[in-house]
Amino acid sequence: MKWTLVQRIGGDASSALVLIILARLLPPSEFGVVAIAATWIAFLALFGELGFGAALVQSVEAGPDEFTSVFALNVVLGAILTSVGVALSWPVAALMHTPQVQPVMATISASFIIRAISLTHNAVAQKHLEFRRLAIRDTLASVLSGLVGIGLALSGAGVWSLVTQSVMASTLSTLWMWTSADWQPKFRRVQWGRLRTLVPYSSRMFCYTFVKYFAMQGDRLVIGHLLGAAALGLYTTSTTLILYPFRSIMSAVGTYLFPKLAAVQCDSSLTTEYMIRTYRFASVLGFPLAGILFFLGPHLLPPLLGPRWLAMAPLIPGIAIMAGCYAFISPIGEFMKALNRPQWLLNWSLGFAGLTLASMLIGVRYGVVGVINRLAIAYLIGAVVSFCIALRLLGLNSVYLARQFGRALLLCTLTVLPACWLSVCLIATNKVLSVLIVPISLTAFIVSLRAWDGTTYETIRTFGAMVVRGCRVTCR
């Protein structure tokens, strides 16, 4: 677990720092151009693996023949997608009414073939719980590509500093996975028939990721097409920064849980224990941090990025609500994947994608703020539905599962949220006291949690110790 935290904290912390520096050097419109290209690239990337990577991790019978066969398929798909990405760059630029997208998308398309030759290495490393290698890969690629991007931005490269950073990150990740891997493909072992055994699971995983794309990226398609590159730049930068801490930690938990649960999927007591511990952790992460961002984020983030980003302020409260809900929505997918419920996963993703798409189309007439506020409502509904899925998945009753994080919610409501509101009120008159109130309230929250809910406190203490160790390893 420590190395999954290092993987996410190292990569995402450095990425967040790089993003803040680049945001001070580049205008929102240039981030929007890259975001438009990246959104379409992400759509094409769905066809780069077809769910076989997750199938290799989940299957207990997959061996060297399956690994090599999937590798060969990935390389073929990567070459095709690079060509398709270049060819589609012109119609995409016309569709999005942004001519600058064409050369950007054509260049980033090179990442398909670069990433294709390491996708199977990533799956093998995850299956064998080699999270140390994955952590080093993410941190190394993020730091070095970020330095290149900052250097180019300082020299006046503009949008190409972001493009180069993206391609460089893919290249460095692939180089690391190949040079550090014990497993290497042997083409004489390619047997296309071996893929047949993985198709039942991989096909459902592909359908899930296909639908998930529209749930997670549909907002960028709608905003980029209807509101333009500048609005999309504001949206993507603000959502990325606010969601970083949630995605970093919950993705680390998910990366660890998927192979771990897949190995013990027949033991109902262990799977129940893992889920309860995960929801306890999500409650203590999600409630206080989302509350702090809701109240204080509009006053802190825009000045940090510079005067060109002041329009970000009204977007932050809605994104904070989405982030808090994300902490509860995120784990359910990993549980359904690990417990071999691909059809459940597909149904869930279809419902959530439809809900978010409808919310965006309703909100777009009110601009970016309208889209975010409607998405916040959709995420609240999604959190409740994912909670119900967890109950059915494990055969638990709602009262039992709610007790696992109900006290954390009550304590957060009594300590952190009032302190954040008071801090906002005092910003103009007493900045010192305004700054001190939040850490004091967080301390009161943790102390109260320890006294009232010792089990949840121990779970958080364990995770917290792993985070600290992960930060130390990352710094070294």
List keywords for this structure.
single chain; 476 residues; mainly alpha
The best one-word shape is globular
Q: How far from one another are the termini?
A: 18 Å
Counted up, domains total 1
The proportion of strand residues reads under 5%
Major sheet attributes: none
Structural class: mainly alpha
Number of strand elements: 0
SSE pattern, N- to C-terminal: HHHHHHHHHHHHHHHHHHH
How much is the radius of gyration in Å? 22 Å
Q: Work out the helix count.
A: 19
Range of helix content: over 70%
Topology:
Blueprint lengths: L1 H24 L2 H18 L6 H7 L5 H32 L5 H8 L2 H6 L2 H9 L3 H24 L4 H22 L18 H29 L1 H35 L4 H38 L10 H23 L3 H22 L3 H28 L3 H17 L1 H11 L4 H22 L1 H22 L1
Helix pairs in contact: 1-8, 1-11, 1-19, 2-4, 2-5, 2-10, 2-11, 3-7, 3-10, 4-5, 4-7, 8-9, 10-11, 10-14, 11-12, 11-13, 12-13, 12-16, 12-17, 12-19, 13-15, 14-15, 16-18, 17-18, 18-19
Describe the protein's architecture and organization.
This protein is mainly α and 476 residues long. The protein has one domain (2-475). The chain is 83% helix and 0% strand. The chain contains 19 helices and no strands. It has helices at residues 2-25, 28-45, 52-58, 64-95, 101-108, 111-116, 119-127, 131-154, 159-180, 199-227, 229-263, 268-305, 316-338, 342-363, 367-394, 398-414, 416-426, 431-452, 454-475. Helix 2 crosses helix 11 (229-263). The protein is globular, with a radius of gyration of 22 Å.
Could you write a compact summary of the structure shown?
The protein has 476 residues and is mostly helical.
